[in-house]
Design goal:
The complex is a heterodimer of chains A (about 450) and B (about 550). With about 450 residues, chain A is of the alpha/beta class. Chain A has helices at about 5-10, 35-50, 55-65, 85-90, 100, 130-135, 155-165, 175-180, 225-240, 250-265, 285-300, 320-345, 415-425, and strands spanning about 75-80, 90, 115, 120-125, 140-145, 190-195, 210, 305-310, 350-355, 375-380, 410. Chain A is built from 13 helices and 11 strands. In chain A, the strands form 2 sheets. Chain A has an 8-stranded mixed β-sheet, with helices on both faces. A 3-stranded antiparallel β-sheet of chain A has the order 2-4-3. In chain A, a hairpin with a 7-residue loop joins strand 3 and strand 4 (about 120-125). Chain A is globular. The relative contact order of chain A is 0.19. Mean pLDDT of chain B is about 85; it is low at about 1-70. Chain B starts with about 50 loop residues before the first helix and ends with a helix. Chain B is globular. Chain B has helices spanning about 50-60, 110-115, 125-130, 135-145, 170-185, 185-200, 205, 210-220, 230-235, 240-245, 260-270, 280-285, 325-335, 340-350, 360-370, 375-385, 385-390, 400-410, 420-425, 445-460, 470, 480-490, 500-510, 520-540, 540-545, and strands spanning about 290-295, 300-305, 315-320, 320-325. In chain B, the strands form 2 sheets. Chain B has a two-stranded antiparallel ribbon. By secondary structure, chain B is mainly alpha-helical. Chain B is about 45% helix and about 5% strand. The chains are: A alpha/beta (about 450), B mainly alpha (about 550). At the A-B interface, helix 7, strand 7, helix 9, helix 10 and helix 12 of A face helix 1, helix 11, helix 20, helix 23 and helix 24 of B.
């Protein structure tokens, strides 16, 4: 494992001395793939040394990690839950009805940052990070993404996005279906939720997926148990999940225990923490911390393929002017820091980020906030993102809004999924998104 | 169709089935205490994980010095639910139900499940006491208790011996409700309160005032098995709800649809069933205009009231009916909607049984519900008597139910604030549901929350583990079978599947296998007993009922 060809690649340009197995890590550097692996084998040896009985679950995790190619592409899904107000993110200051629809909330036309691809729109100052990324060609913008006959329930509309079809009874996430076809039967890290609970878009029928809040907080302490008995105990932990049963509830609980045990062995090397490259600063907020951990996990060589994270608070029915901008600022700065982090680690060509919300908000404000709308804003971020706008801004005139006075979609989320599957994950979208061929696939990935 | 929650419990992404994780954030400046950082957990638990491990490694080969042990005193056991006194001694006492009732044996195993589904599991001896009553009496003991609740045992404290401040201190609201679950002699009252809290899910993340949240909790408790019609009426005028779903910002000048939509979608009718249109949402919002309150730095939100001038008194058309409807009609019309009873029965059933009722039974329960004037008690009684509860598949216990049951079994009082952040890791902080649709009962378990439950068991056992001489002087000849029997007894002898017993026995053998010195043969057996207690209650057998 220590001889895999990726070592030089991951250290390229960082001016570090060669790290040989057994050498201590240079202080202040991030985890390299090699340092991860040498640590892992050191830790595996200490497990052997402490317990005469084989830690097979741990071995399986290491083997799975090592077997994955370091060149595997990763897709990260960032969900802005609650329905983010697209007319704040990209303010249509060049449209005549904007001021009358938003008497309290409209941004004056001389504020904000110009949006190069459509001069009638301006970035809100709170999303300056997105403007920076867009200027660098690393941000693809969907000014009005959605679907026909839009549903204005949070729960129904996000469900459509999560299952990748307009079908209330869909049961598996679109990323989960990708893993069912192209994932491994024993690697929960292939579909990783960064958070407390599983993101439904990752719900898979056949294969295990993982949920973890932070990789350095995944220990399993027990009062009055230590040493070899504790090692044996963690073995038994895994075995509690393995027996088969005819009871559906018990089967579910056991499967989750097994997945937890496998993930524990995969994350064991991170128990001593991780670091962020010099010059990269994340906002001190949940999303930032999670993306910082994710970047270290990718460099550490963990076998990730699709990752989902949710960040909420966008259901701005009231007091939108006070609450929305700080949230947007925090989230978009976190995204920019993640991109910079990946660039510093030399990983930016392997990661693409898709940012979405279940709907936009109604163009006409309700006093101090906005109610649920239809089409909204979305993004694809990454060094390999095409950087070209997908669909145009549909306009705010009566004749341009839909029958419920909401923004019309100028691109369909299923077309975006199709493009991500075909162009980034390089698989047949037709097997994953029902009717994929009927949705035009925009160019999302730079060749 | 409908807001059903039963689907195959293996991670469905069914919209109709799921309850969501959208976090509502407070929408105006409010002062909210910051959550206490994890490191500030009280001294008993303050050892951070690295130090724990280092300490642990050292312990393997060194003789440990004696240190003072904080022992957690045993709580008295709350009395089991009392059988209905009006029922008389005759063994043929029966509750009425329009659907099938369980006619098989009602033994300790069935009583355990009933106590978990309709409460928080057995205290030592309860399952036996309930089994002796027979099914109908046991159900009536839960649904028709006499008099008020009695709370047995020590009052809850914060870990430093101080009483709780549920209206003020962060997390004490959670501890306050949890304590009621642990010490009550009327567990279904508290379980129904939890169900309504999930059903009309309101989060203090958006309300920002624990006093309003606690008042809402008392509202749910008051209506526990009463009229759902009255419950919806009172919830619509409830201050915490008024703040949570912006009813106080819903005026005739600027209608705010938030409450109107969720009242129909989540509380009474369900999405995507054809029960209402987007126009109904907008019209109902107008009917619900008029609420107002005052805010001050000292009192927060107060003086909740209906202000006629804020109300839109003109005609609205809702569900095809036109009139100058106000908030009371708005609430009542949703409950009287022809598609409400089916929504209600499905949703209520799903809290107790993980597979849907047979169609005929569902229709009979709808009829029972409507004919009783939207009473909850008869429907709950019919569900608790139903064969599918007693012979159907297991259900995952919600995290706080799991924890409350564990503390009941251990006879442990609320004596630390740690339960609040530990429950966050397990996926359920009371008064903080993830969003207005409540907790997702179909996916309590994943790799994050499973670890959270591991920690819950560890902290429940902390302060009770064998230490010092109890370990160094442990019985050198104890067999694996005896070790497991002792671990079971520590939890009040819960039922285990054969598979789980086999894994635990194999573990008990493996950790003392190989050539060991005599001190190790003693010490490892002591550690083994600690480990077995932890593994046993963590096992999937005990995560489900």
């Amino acid at each position: 494992m220590a001889n895999c060809g990726c070592t030089e690649y991951s250290r390229a340009g960082r001016g570090l001395p060669a790290i040989e197995p057994g050498m201590p890590l240079p202080a202040g550097t991030g985890l390299t793939r090699r340092s991860f692996l040498s640590r892992a084998s050191g830790l595996a040896m200490s497990v052997y040394g402490a317990a005469s009985l084989g830690p097979k679950a741990f071995e399986a995790g290491i083997a799975a990690a090592a077997a994955q190619s370091a060149e595997q592409r990763i897709l990260v899904s960032v969900f802005l839950s609650g329905g983010v107000d697209s007319l704040t993110v990209l303010a249509p200051t060049g449209h005549s009805r904007y001021g009358s629809l938003r008497p309290a909330l409209a941004m004056p036309a001389d504020q904000g940052i110009p949006f190069a691809e459509d001069t009638s729109l301006r970035w809100h100052p709170s999303v300056a990070s997105l403007a920076t990324l867009h200027d660098e060609g690393k941000l693809t913008v969907f000014p009005a993404v959605g679907y026909d006959d839009p549903n204005q329930s949070h729960f129904t509309s996000r469900h459509y996005w999560e299952v990748g079809e307009v079908n209330p009874s869909g049961r598996w996430g679109w990323l989960g279906r990708f893993l069912d076809r192209h994932g491994a039967p024993d690697n929960p890290l292939q579909g990783l939720t960064l958070g407390w609970e599983l993101q439904p878009s990752l719900a898979a029928r056949e294969v295990p997926v993982a949920t973890v809040s932070r990789p350095d907080q995944y220990d399993f302490w027990s009062p009055g148990v230590w040493g070899p008995v504790h090692d044996q105990m963690l073995e038994a932990f895994g075995e509690l999940g393995e027996a088969s049963t005819g009871d559906a509830g018990l089967r579910y609980a056991r499967a989750q225990v097994t997945a937890t045990s496998t993930l524990r062995s995969q994350l064991e090397p991170f128990q001593s923490g991780y670091s962020t490259p010099a010059g990269v600063t994340y906002p001190d907020a949940e999303l930032g911390r999670r993306l910082a951990a994710l970047s270290a996990m990718i460099e550490g060589g963990l076998p990730l393929r699709v990752v989902a994270v949710e960040t909420g608070g966008y259901d701005t029915h009231s007091n939108q002017a006070q609450t929305l901008a700080p949230d947007l600022d925090e989230v978009t700065r976190s995204l920019l820091a993640f991109q910079r982090d990946l660039e510093a680690r030399g990983l930016a060509d392997r990661v693409l980020v898709h940012v979405w919300s279940e709907f936009g908000r109604r163009p006409e404000e309700n006093g101090s906030g906005t109610d649920h709308g239809a089409a909204g804003v979305g993004f694809v971020m990454g060094s390999r993102a095409s950087g070209e706008m997908v669909g145009s801004f549909p306009g705010l005139l009566d004749s341009q809004l839909d029958g419920a006075d909401n923004l019309r979609a100028t691109s369909d989320f299923r077309g975006a999924y199709r493009a991500l599957l075909e162009q980034w994950l390089e698989v047949d979208a037709g097997e994953i998104i029902p009717g994929a061929s009927s949705f035009p696939a925009p160019t999302l990935v730079r060749p | 169709m409908g807001d059903t929650k039963w689907v195959d419990p293996v991670a469905p992404a069914d919209a109709a089935a799921r309850r969501r994780k959208r976090r509502k954030r407070k929408t105006r400046p409010r002062c909210q205490p910051k959550r206490r950082p994890r490191a500030r957990a009280d001294s008993l638990y303050a050892v951070d994980s690295k130090r724990r491990r280092r300490k642990a490694k050292r312990r393997v080969c060194q003789k440990r010095r004696r240190k003072p042990v904080r022992r957690v005193p045993l709580q008295p056991v709350p009395p089991p639910p009392a059988p209905p006194s009006g029922a008389g001694p005759a063994p043929e006492f029966r509750l009425s139900s329009p659907v099938a009732t369980w006619s098989g044996a009602f033994g300790v195993r069935e009583a355990e499940r009933l106590l978990w589904r309709a409460g928080f599991g057995p205290s030592p001896g309860h399952a036996q006491a309930l089994a002796g009553m027979g099914l109908h009496r046991a159900v009536a003991a839960l649904t028709r208790p006499e008099g008020g609740q009695t709370f047995t045992g020590a009052a809850p404290t914060d870990g430093d011996g101080n009483p709780l401040a549920p209206e003020d201190a962060w997390g004490h609201d959670h501890l306050w409700f949890l304590d009621r679950m642990v010490r009550t002699d009327q567990p279904l009252v508290e379980r129904m309160t939890l169900i309504w809290h999930d059903w009309f899910a309101t989060s203090n993340d958006g309300v920002g005032q624990q006093n309003l949240m606690l008042a809402q909790n008392e509202l749910f408790r008051r209506h526990w098995l009463g009229s759902f019609d009255q419950l919806v009426h009172d919830v619509t005028a409830d201050p915490a709800m008024i703040v949570w779903l912006n009813l106080d910002q819903n005026t005739r000048w600027n209608p705010n649809e938030n409450y109107a939509r969720e009242l129909m979608e989540l509380f009474t009718l369900g999405a995507d069933r054809g029960a209402y249109t987007e126009t109904d949402v907008r019209e109902l919002a107008r009917a619900l205009t008029g609420w107002d309150n005052d805010w001050s730095g000292e009192l927060g939100y107060h003086n909740f009231r209906f202000v006629q001038n804020r109300h839109d008194a003109s005609a609205k058309t809702v569900f095809g009916q036109t009139g100058a409807f106000g908030w009371e009609q708005a609430a009542a019309m949703c409950v009287r909607h022809p598609l409400h009873a089916s929504f209600f029965v499905e949703k209520l059933w799903s809290y107790f049984v993980p597979v849907p009722p047979p169609d005929g039974d569902r229709a009979a329960l709808e009829q029972l519900y409507v004919q009783s004037g939207w009473q909850v008690r008869p429907v709950v009684e019919a569900i608790l008597l139903h064969p599918q509860l007693h012979e159907g598949p297991r259900m995952v216990k919600p995290p706080v139910v799991f924890l409350a049951g564990m503390l009941r079994a251990l006879r442990r009082a609320i004596d630390t604030e740690a339960w609040t952040w530990l429950c966050e890791g397990a996926g359920q902080v009371l008064f903080h549901p993830p969003d207005v649709s409540g907790w997702d009962d179909s996916r309590w378990l994943d790799t994050s929350t499973v670890r959270g439950r591991w920690e819950l068991v560890g902290y429940a056992l902390a302060g009770r583990e064998l230490e010092d001489e109890a370990i160094t002087g442990y019985d050198i000849s104890e067999t694996p079978e005896t070790a497991l029997a002792l671990a079971r007894a520590a939890w009040g002898d819960p039922q285990l599947t054969g598979e789980t017993a086999a894994v635990l026995t194999a573990f008990a053998e493996a950790c003392v296998a190989g050539p060991l010195a005599n001190w190790q043969r003693r010490q490892y057996r002591g550690l083994r007993q600690n480990a077995l207690r932890h593994l046993l209650y963590f096992s999937p057998d005990l995560q489900t009922s």
